Amino acid sequence: MSITPERVAQIAKLARLELDDEKQRLFAGQFEDILKYMDTLNGLDTAGTEPLYSPVEQPTPLREDKAEKRFERDDIVSNAPETDGQFFIVPKIV
Amino acid sequence: MADFEVVIGLEVHAQLKTESKLFCSCSTRFGSEPNENVCEVCSGMPGALPTLNAKAVEFAAKMGLAMNCNVSLGSIFERKNYFYPDSPNGYQISQLDNAICQNGYIEIPVGESTKRVGITRIQLENDAGKSIHSQAENLSYVDFNRTGVPLIEIVSDPDMRSAEQAVSYLKTLHSILLYLDICDGNMEEGSFRCDANVSLRPRGQEEFGTRVELKNMNSFRNVQRGIEYEIARQEDLILDGEEVVQETRLYNAEKNITASMRGKEEAHDYRYFPDPDLIPIKLTEEQVAGWKSELPELPLEKRARFESEFGLPEYDANLLTQDRAIAEYFEAAVGCFNNPKKLSNFMMGQFMRELNERSIAVADVALAPEHFAELVRIVEEGMISTKIGNDVLPELMEKGGSAEAFVKEKGMVQISDSSELESVVDEVIAENPSEAEAYRGGKHKLQSFFVGQVMRKTRGKANPALVNELLQKKL
Ligand SMILES: [Zn+2]
């Protein structure tokens, strides 16, 4: 697969990043290198090997279903870009 | 629709009835003040790590078992990436091919028989928050209380062939969720939501047509109407030689149309990948077997048993088993008075009418099943008439207590004493000489007129069989 600067621009847009032409070319090259490395791995014979989704082997830690209030609302909304003390306020989305 | 076959697959989102959210211990309570049930995890603070709710895993697995799915012993979570302010992480934690439950089926009632609908998978995922948009201020107000509430998304195979089948599937699913007691099933508040994929293909063609995803149908009726509208719209397009565009359309209940969400979908490229913050959910065969043994009798099984064990008609059995609480109430009543059909008549009639009228659930009924059974028994025994039985039921449902004591106290016990009734019958005949004459002249239809008069004088308490007998004797 060949990564073009246009493809980089598309991916950047999905990630809400703005990249100038120079950066798009730079990252296209870097993407290529990474994918080539993956291609090397693709050359290995993995038939009969279970897919590995996590290198951690212990079972999923599970939490008991108990509700707990750990923060006051003020603590939480103080992280908002803008707030009226109740809501996170953001530029209008629809 | 002779030339086309309709193909429908449904995606149902059901909110799980857990106390806390899927990946943090914030409360899932509905109706709290905005952003009261929020922490660093569900508001997407950098570095916050999710810990999985054990109950949500159990509920999802149980739903899978109830729908004949394979429960995966090693399912994984994926990130579905998109930007929207009510999803503060910038992604939703969801599942795809390696979901917790896969490859199941359920039987749904279709007309007189049943149809098998395949279940592709059931995935565990977290819900998004809610936002209010202010046109005037050009701002959106975001509330994260619902963000992170556990959902299961139940994805069906494209096995339904009409809007009726889709609704029947939905109702079956809804009833299973309530039987398992893992979702409150409230469609208006959004704890049970449905999206439908609808397409048409020429009859006999193997390949599917272009599908349209329908959203925003928040009642069974709207699902039916939305799908029907969409089928007609696609049929018109095809017959006019136009193309059906693959898109998402919103159902508008007020206008009863579907309208395109134009453009909003195009940018969607979710770039799923396994969530590195969560290791696979590992389950054991023993855990799954344990959950399976805890499953209650499910609606379809209960319905079959109500028919065979109680000799009820299919119609009754179906109606009585849609809601688990009603079914259990009914069964408890049968245990006290073994006349299932009479109990069923009262239950499906006045009892359910009262539930609907007052918008209450069986849990809100003060009348114990044994006292409901008592009421039906005293009607059967002739102590009160069916009409009086129906008349007193609402008050009994509200206040509870012994039915027999209630009717005795109110003086509603039927007059079955012939000497007492005889004098009333005599009175009525004396007061209506011309009708009596006509009756004797052959107008036997007037019998019901005389019965009515006697009932009026006794305020409905006369035993009808006895009245008829006396009238025939006296006239
Ligand atoms: Zn939280």
UniProtKB/TrEMBL annotation, chain A:
Renumbered to this chain, the Basic and acidic residues biased-composition regions fall at 62-76
In Gene Ontology terms, what is a biological process of this protein?
Answer: glutaminyl-tRNAGln biosynthesis via transamidation
EC number(s) on file:
6.3.5.-
Query: What are the record keywords, sorted?
Result: ATP-binding, Ligase, Nucleotide-binding, Protein biosynthesis, Transferase
- Bilayer-crossing residues are none
The leader peptide range reads none
What reaction is this protein's catalytic activity? L-glutamyl-tRNA(Gln) + L-glutamine + ATP + H2O = L-glutaminyl-tRNA(Gln) + L-glutamate + ADP + phosphate + H(+); L-aspartyl-tRNA(Asn) + L-glutamine + ATP + H2O = L-asparaginyl-tRNA(Asn) + L-glutamate + ADP + phosphate + 2 H(+)
Which Gene3D superfamilies does the protein's record reference?
Answer: Glu-tRNAGln amidotransferase C subunit, N-terminal domain
Q: What would be one Pfam family of this protein? A: GatC
Q: Quick one: where's region Disordered? A: 48-76
Record flagged with keyword Ligase? yes
Query: InterPro entries per the record?
Result: Asp/Glu-ADT_sf_sub_c, GatC
**GO molecular function annotations of the record:** asparaginyl-tRNA synthase (glutamine-hydrolyzing) activity; ATP binding; glutaminyl-tRNA synthase (glutamine-hydrolyzing) activity; transferase activity
| Quaternary structure annotation from Swiss-Prot or TrEMBL | Heterotrimer of A, B and C subunits.
What name has this protein been given in UniProt? Aspartyl/glutamyl-tRNA(Asn/Gln) amidotransferase subunit C
Q: Which organism is it from?
A: Halodesulfovibrio spirochaetisodalis
The gene that this protein is the product of is gatC
TrEMBL record, chain B:
Give the reactions, separated by semicolons, that this protein catalyses: L-aspartyl-tRNA(Asn) + L-glutamine + ATP + H2O = L-asparaginyl-tRNA(Asn) + L-glutamate + ADP + phosphate + 2 H(+); L-glutamyl-tRNA(Gln) + L-glutamine + ATP + H2O = L-glutaminyl-tRNA(Gln) + L-glutamate + ADP + phosphate + H(+)
Span of the signal peptide: none
Q: Does the keyword Hydrolase apply?
A: no
For this protein, the record's InterPro entries field holds: Asn/Gln-tRNA_amidoTrfase_suB/E, Asn/Gln-tRNA_Trfase_suB/E_cat, Asn/Gln_amidotransferase, Asn/Gln_tRNA_amidoTrase-B-like, GatB, GatB_C_1, GatB_Yqey_C_2, Gln-tRNA_amidoTrfase_suB_CS
Keyword annotations for this protein, in alphabetical order, are: ATP-binding, Ligase, Nucleotide-binding, Protein biosynthesis, Transferase
Single GO molecular function: asparaginyl-tRNA synthase (glutamine-hydrolyzing) activity
Q: What is its EC number?
A: 6.3.5.-
Q: Name one GO biological process term.
A: glutaminyl-tRNAGln biosynthesis via transamidation
Similarity remark: Belongs to the GatB/GatE family. GatB subfamily.
Which NCBIfam families does its entry note?
gatB, PRK05477.1-2, PRK05477.1-4
The molecule here is called Aspartyl/glutamyl-tRNA(Asn/Gln) amidotransferase subunit B
**Which lineage ranks, top first, belong to the organism behind this chain?**
Bacteria, Pseudomonadati, Thermodesulfobacteriota, Desulfovibrionia, Desulfovibrionales
